[in-house]
Description:
The complex is a heterodimer. Chain A is 38% helix and 15% strand. Chain A has 25 helices and 18 strands. In chain A, helix 1 packs parallel to helix 7, helix 3 (64-78) runs parallel beside helix 5 and helix 16 runs parallel beside helix 23. The longest helix of chain A is centred in the first third of the chain and has 15 residues, at 64-78. In chain B, a hairpin with a 4-residue loop joins strand 2 (38-45) and strand 3 (50-59). The interface between A and B is medium-sized, with 22 and 26 residues.
Amino acid sequence: MTAQQTTAQPPVDVRSMTGAQVVLRALLDQGVEVIFGYPGGAVLPLYDALFQQNTIQHVLVRHEQAAVHAAEGYARSTGKTGVVLVTSGPGATNTVTGLTDALMDSVPVVCLTGQVPTHMIGNDAFQEADTVGITRPCTKHNYLVKKAEDLARIVHEAFHVASSGRPGPVVVDLPKNILMGEAPYIEKEAGRRRSYSPRREPDPGRIEEAVRLLARAERPIFYVGGGVVNSGPLACALLTELVRATGYPITLTLMGLGAYPAADPQYLGMLGMHGTYEANMAMHGCDVMVCIGARFDDRVTGRLDGFSPGSRKIHIDIDPSSINKNVPVDIAIVGDAERSLEAMLEAWKRVAPTVDRARVAPWWAQIERWRAVDSLRFRQHGEAIKPQHAIKRLYEMTRDRDPYITTDVGQHQMWAAQHFHFEKPRRWLTSGGLGTMGYGFPAALGVQMAHPEALVINISGDASWVMNMQEMSTAMQYRLPVKIFLINNGYMGMVRQWQDFFHGSRRAESYMDSMPDFVKLAEAFGARGLRATTVAELDRVIAEMLATDGSVLADIRVEKVENVYPMIPGGAAHNEIKLSPEDDGGHEPIAEDGMVLV
Amino acid sequence: MNMEEEKRHTIVVLVDNEAGVLARVIGLFSGRGYNIDSLTVAEVDPVHKLSRINIVTTGTELVIEQIKALLSKLVPVHRVQDLTIEGPHVERELALVKVNGDRERLVQALRIADFMHARLVDSTPGSLVFEVTGSSDELDAFIALVEPVEVSRAGIVAIGRGDMILDGVSQDRE
Lengths: 598, 174
């Protein structure tokens, strides 16, 4: 939960508060500092109340979807709950993509939506939408406040639900008459509901069983995801301690990057569809797998009947419904990652006080042979910039500045995940589950709001970035110096790659030949635009971008038809991973059953 | 055990009786492609405003486990009980069955109703309405015999036998 600000608030006469004032007071009591939003008729009373105070800052976005992504960026880079405020009807419906994104990636967000007055609900009133109906499947929970006396309790409960257990988005729909009429205020801790109390403490017996299994393993692996990042920096520190105490290899999911230091020799890199050869082969060949805070996503497992066939599996997750969903496991542990790791570390020190390096030595020898394949290698030759090289240089030139990186979705996202390395959690923000193009730039604005002094870079693609480029205007309004590193190949690169691989190179609608001049576009917004078209220009452009105080869009014109490797094609298993074409003589036709998968 | 084998389960859910709770439960099934064979809902504890939902569903062991986990995760859900696994239980269903026709046909329906313990709840010169309760099989048998023109079935209600008591308030976690 966020920092306590309750004591800092001036006393208010709770008898004469309007609903809008009650909402605002509840936000203050929850420690809210920033709201991302967009006004409209139904929420005007709340905007009026916001106008009359100075504690909470409101960031005016240019589209409500961006408000949710910005709140996600704020939340994921701080661990606090992000807050969104939008109006009824289109304001609410525009948040749906952002809410679904937050649900898939377990991001705590409270989204306040305006609603027409209660007596008009159901009349097809102007800007009326069934917001709770529309957002029910894309939120962790949602509320329509019909009675003033429920208002304060519901807002508090929304924060509790959003931030506890497996975090997620919560919508509170606020009819205008509730905001304008009188409403009683109740304190944060009053009236917590009995039916909701997610389990945090792991079962000690199962922890013991898991550790004993782990201590006997000959080919173990840790497979760790975003749940550990969500659990907090302490969970990540405990993870690092446990992994080092065991001497076992670890791989991270896309969402988990930063949970374990990338520079550590026990780290095998990211796993999954575009993960490293050593990570995927180790997952396939292991005899004991410890999954913590990950969910056996299809991008990670590949073909399920070929997934890690010989291993016994331990799964630790705070969400019981994530366990045994896609892959049946042998030891299921429901609990918070931090508590579970603490218990495992304690048990490990008892069960295996001396590390038996010989037991896992053959396994490490095998892993080193896989690692020697160097599956992420690429060759930068000629004038044209390889996208991998651009990201590698960006990493090398910014690594000392502890940057925050957000991405959009597609090839640039995978290259960023492969070639940018994270030593700390909460530095890497990407849309993993939903795969939302247009996520990265507004998310970067949210990060920069939370960390005004930090270097925040949105690594994006040309197709993704234009999906929310209107937010450049927001960046300028709030003087947010976000850097945009645009991997511009003139294609929807990942779509083009799949068409080339699986659809006979018929590049249907994956090329945009009327993209704007991004340098002029940046300048039109009042930002700085830079461009690199050759390798020789690349470093200079990066340096200039970093030396510029305000927001910069760096248009990096990269080689147009580079593909992301390694790749586990849809419908294939981990050990069927394809390396770059120099090794297998060009990409091969994929079977039809792979084509139907996404 | 065969993990692929589909089995019918009767699941009982105690929920806060609030707006939208049934939509949450149904949405969970429809959104993830699970089956609902039968569903009943009514308030059972007016003091604590608790409703009881009885769901009959069919799925593999993994799917049933997933359904129960997802139901338990819903914020207004207090308790989830799988009667098929957790113990012996009683299942009953109620149906209203309308038979139309000439006198001979109606007399025959009355005879069947008599030996199958269906109750006559409405009669006109050309039609009869029977109320029948029992297991779903018993209802199926009665309906097959009387060849009705219209049937209204309530869906399954279920309860554990003996000492197994589902009480949402005292068993809440914390």
